[in-house]
Amino acid sequence: MPPARRAGGIAGDGISFRERKSKMYAVDSPTTPQHGSTGGPDAQGTPGRSGRNRRGESARTPWLLSLPTLLLLAGLLAYPLFRMIVLSFQNMRLRELITGAAPPWVGLDQYRSVLTSSAFWSVVWHSVLFTVVSVAVSVVLGMAVALLMRRVSRGVRLAMVVAMMFVWALPQLVQAQIFRWMTDSDFGVVNYLIDKIPGVSFANHSWFVSPTQGWLVITTLVVWAGIPFLAITLNAGLTQVPKELLEAATVDGASAWQALRGITLPILRPLLIIVTTLSVIWNFGLFTQPWVLRDGKPEPEFQTLATYAYTQAFGQSRYSLGSAIAVITVLLMLGVMAFYIRQMFKIGEVD
Amino acid sequence: MVATTAGTARARRRRLNPDAEGTITVGRSRTSTVLANLTGIVFSIVMIFPVYWVLNTAFKPATEVLRFTPSFLPQHPTLDNFVSAFKAQYFLQDMVNGLVITGFSVLGALAIGFLAALAIARFQFYGRRAIILIVLAVQLVPFIALLIPLFLMLQSVSLTDSLIGVSITYIAVLLPYTVWTLRGFISGIPRELDEAAMIDGCSRAQVFWRIILPLTGPGLVATSVYGFIQAWNEFIIVNTLNSPAKQNLMAWLLQNQTTRGTAWGPLMAGAIITSIPVVIFFLIIQRNIATGLTAGAVKG
């Protein structure tokens, strides 16, 4: 669900406060139990008053509390994941869906037909190329805007933040609909504005005839929609860069570029890694934008892995083929996801 | 390690100069500031242009919308587009559906997720890291990939084309985020408060009801608002599982494009109506989103 992924690994505002608190606690509080700085008495099964009872309770309570969540995730995420894998070794079509008959097993046939189809490889190629280009452009632009926000005067900064907030707040579907309207071949404002350039005729220009131009529109949409998150997050990161360091570097004769490369970027590195990884995960799973811009029927050259799997399954009732594509997609993304989780564990999950 | 250095340096800077928020001025010429400001203004205009354009279109009569040379302000402003959006088939019904689905799934995710968040934040137990790992990992699974088996599963128990099936699915979608966020909020409550209450004779349950729950209040609000945005904005799942009469406004907006592709005015009006609640909510809680997304990467 792309909109949900927009928020990736969100954690509450309280986090920094809590970290400070737990550190303080570990250092200052004489009541801290020896093992586990964040354990706290309840976790240790304090000996003494009703000690025995409490220990038994402590072992079970957290699991009882987590049980509903785990059951729901197992039923609605883990089991479907398993079913998806099973399905990809079967041949589930409309007939099986209607009659309820068990779909026949076909072994690796689905994978064979996916991996040998040139349509699939062309989709993989689009997706990879789009991901690389769009992530590179968004992160560089996001960083540039974040740096710009530190240089402009207060009023301009406010204007920038307000503009970005409105873009960020819009639902993905609405963002895509706006772009569909602006690039409409008959009445789109983009054609009108380009047509204004002397010597260029863009009246009735259709943006989705050429794959390059079509992807240009999609990339522009994704970059436009992605900049607010990147710029505002990176700008928050920039406030952590000590001003004295930058001033000292300037006094010592470093150019702005040298200061950026030598001081700002190294300090921002952890944050840059996280936002880049998130952008890769989101953009590789692109669905809404090409889906909406192509009226829910993307042409082969505008398919992404997500729309391709979806079209095969729900458009053509090839549920097994769609599942095989989805399995391959997940496998392709696994490395990036593992990397993201490791980063989150390394810097986010400190306790 | 890098982040820690930055943290202390920042703390020192704070001490030296309590409001060191301003821009760096050393070595900056006036022309470069003017240039930066100009770039900033151009950037803001480019960013906001599509938003302005949807508003501009929505208030124009149809004859004014369908023109190659557009007017940059509606010459004959009208509310017709909004009226026809409201009168469109399924619009009101889908709006009610959306509210029901969203409300049910947000409350469900909150109730279930709060317990797990409590476990992760307040207990040290074997398997805790595993639960955190699961919560983090499932957020990354592309939900579209799971849609095929989910559709078949819900179909087999006759929960497709029903508000219940979608709501349950949404709970699962919202749950990982809810757990992760609430965990942050609960951890923010000093553990000493729990201990003090327990020394004063409170039971674990009383600590929960009298200390943790009230103090997590703002966190619960922020989490549910964010959940509302997610559930309200979702359209792929609901569009796949349900028929137009049982969808939400987002899916309505998607359907609208295929049936009445050229009715741009009402479409843009519908987009505005659909966006208003999320935009308002988003602007209220945006600080949480900005800081939360990269939890811990920047230490303050």
Mind explaining what this structure looks like?
The complex is a heterodimer of chains A (351) and B (300). Chain A is built from 16 helices and no strands. By secondary structure, chain A is mainly α. Chain A has a domain at 112-348: MetI-like (MetI-like fold, Orthogonal Bundle), CATH 1.10.3720. In chain A, helix 7 runs parallel beside helix 11 (211-238). The longest helix of chain A has 37 residues, at 51-87. Chain A starts with a helix and ends with a helix. Chain B is mostly helical. Chain B folds into two domains: 2-80, no CATH class; 89-259, MetI-like (MetI-like fold). Helix content of chain B is 74%, strand content 0%. Chain B has 14 helices and no strands. In chain B, helix 5 crosses helix 11. Mean pLDDT of chain B is 81; it is low at 1-22 and 292-300. Chains A and B meet through helix 1, helix 2, helix 3, helix 4 and helix 7 of A and helix 1, helix 2, helix 5, helix 6 and helix 7 of B.
Structure described in brief:
The complex is a heterodimer of chains A (351) and B (300). With 351 residues, chain A is mainly α.
Break the fold down into its secondary structure elements and pairings.
The complex is a heterodimer of chains A (351) and B (300).
Chain A: H1 2-5, H2 15-28, H3 40-44, H4 51-87, H5 94-99, H6 109-115, H7 118-151, H8 154-169, H9 172-182, H10 189-195, H11 211-238, H12 243-251, H13 256-284, H14 288-293, H15 305-315, H16 319-348
Helix pairs in contact in A: 6-16, 7-11, 7-13, 8-11, 11-13, 12-13, 13-16, 15-16
Chain B: H1 2-16, H2 30-58, H3 62-65, H4 80-87, H5 91-122, H6 128-138, H7 143-156, H8 163-187, H9 191-199, H10 204-215, H11 217-233, H12 236-241, H13 249-259, H14 264-292
Supply the CATH architecture of the largest domain in chain B.
Orthogonal Bundle
Number of domains of chain B: 2
Number of helices of chain A: 16
Q: What fraction strand of chain A? A: under 5%
Class by alpha and beta content of chain A? mainly alpha
CATH 2nd-level architecture of the domain at 112-348 in chain A:
Orthogonal Bundle
pLDDT < 50 runs, ≥5 residues of chain A: 1-55
